[in-house]
Design a protein that fits this description.
- It is a single chain.
- By secondary structure, the protein is α/β, with parallel strands linked by helices.
- It has two domains: about 1-115 and about 240-320, FAD/NAD(P)-binding domain; about 120-240, 3-Layer(bba) Sandwich (FAD/NAD(P)-binding domain).
- About 25% of the residues lie in helices and about 25% in strands.
- The chain is built from seven helices and 19 strands.
- The chain has helices spanning about 15-25, 60-70, 125-130, 140, 155-165, 185-195, 290-320; strands at about 1-10, 30, 45, 55-60, 75-80, 80-85, 95-100, 105-110, 115-120, 135, 150-155, 175, 200, 205-210, 215-220, 230, 235-240, 240-245, 275.
- Strands 1, 2, 5, 6, 7, 8 and 19 form a seven-stranded mixed β-sheet that branches. A five-stranded parallel β-sheet has the order 10-17-11-12-13, with helices on one face. Strands 14-15-16 form a three-stranded antiparallel β-sheet.
- Helix 5 (about 155-165) links the parallel strand 11 (about 150-155) and strand 12.
- Helix 1 packs parallel to helix 2 (about 60-70), helix 1 packs parallel to helix 7 and helix 5 (about 155-165) runs parallel beside helix 6.
- The protein is elongated.
- About 45% of the residues are buried.
- Bound molecules: NADPH dihydro-nicotinamide-adenine-dinucleotide phosphate (NDP).
- NADPH dihydro-nicotinamide-adenine-dinucleotide phosphate (NDP) binds next to helix 5.
Length: about 325
Amino acid sequence: MEKHECVIIGTGPAGYTAAIYAARADLKPVVYTGLEPGGQLTTTTDVENFPGYPEGIMGPEMMEDLKKQAERFGTDVRFGMITKAELAEIPGEYHKLTVDENTEVLAKTVIIATGASAKYLGLESEKKFMGHGVSACAICDGFFFKGKNVVVVGGGDSAAEEATYLAKLCPKVTVLIRKDHWRASQIMENRVKNTPNIEVLYNTEAVEVLGDKTVTAIKVKNNQTEEESEIPADGFFLAIGHKPNTDIFKGQLEMDEVGYIQTKPGTVSTNYPGVFATGDAQDKVYRQAITAAGTGCMGALEAEKYLQEYAEEVESAQIET
Ligand code: NDP
C-alpha cells in the first residue's frame, strides 16, 4: 500500500494552495481531484476579486494556473475520488483513505479541501444559463449585473445578505420566498425591509428561467393561488443554502448540524491528529476563493509542523532507549 506524508483531498483554491505550500516544504503531496477538478470556480466565468489579476481571469483558467503552480514544485495531482476515510486517533499513525472504492493509500497527514456545493433548484433552464445569468454567489458575480434587475431565491440569511448586496448595484432586486415568512435573522430581515429597491414576494417559487442566450425573465408561481407570472430580470441568484462535501468523514470528525467540519479556533486542526480541514468544507461564513486559499496555506503549514514535531518525538524516544 502506498504511504504518503501528505494527502490533500480536493482541488479548489484551498487544495491547490495547500499543495503549493506542502510541495515547497518537501512533503511530496499527493492531491486527489474529486469529481469536479478545480472545484466551484470551474463553474464560474470571470473572477475579478482574486488579488493578483488586475484584468480578472476566467475561473477555469485560474484553477489551471494554480494546478500548474502546485505541479511545478512536485505535487502529484491524481484524478480520483476519496470514497472512504479511516482516520487514526493516535498521533503519528497513518490514516487510511480509499480511492474510487478500490485502492487504499496511507497518509500521515490529510488536508481536507473538499469544498461545498451550492444548492440549486434543479430546473433544466437553471442549468442552461449557469454562468450566463444564473449564479449562486452575489459577491462573485453581482458586479456583472450592475444597472440591471435581478431575482434572488431564498429566505435565509444568505438570501437577505445577497439581496442587500445586489441592491447596491441593481435598480431592482426581487426576492422569492417559498413560505409566507423569512427564515433569516430579524436584523437581516429588517435590513431588507429598509432597502427601498428590494421587493419580497412571499409564497412564491421560480418555475422557469427564461431567455435565449442570456436570462431575460423568471417565470414564477404563487404556491397559494397557483397563479403564474413573469418577472423581467437579467440575473437569477440562488441563495438556498450550501452543502459541504464532508459525508465521508461523518461519525469521525466533529461537524455542525449541516456538515461543516469544526476546527479548533484560529487553526485548521480537527479533532483527529494530523487531519486538517480547509476551505469551504469548514467555512460557512466567508466562502471566498481567497479565504479558502488562506486556510489551504494554514493546512500545509500545520501539516508540516505536525510531521516535524512527530519526527522529533520519535527521534528523542530512540535516543532514550
Ligand atoms: P438556510 O438554510 O438558513 O436558508 C435557506 C433558505 O432557502 C430558506 O429560506 C429555505 O426555505 C430556502 N430554500 C431551501 N430550498 C429551497 C428550494 N428548493 N426552493 C426555494 N427555497 C428554498 O441557508 P443560508 O445559506 O441562508 O444560511 C446558512 C447558514 O449560514 C445559516 O446558519 C445562516 O444563519 C448562516 N449565515 C449567516 C450570515 C450572517 O450572519 N451574515 C450570512 C449568511 C449565512 P425554507 O425556510 O422554506 O426551508
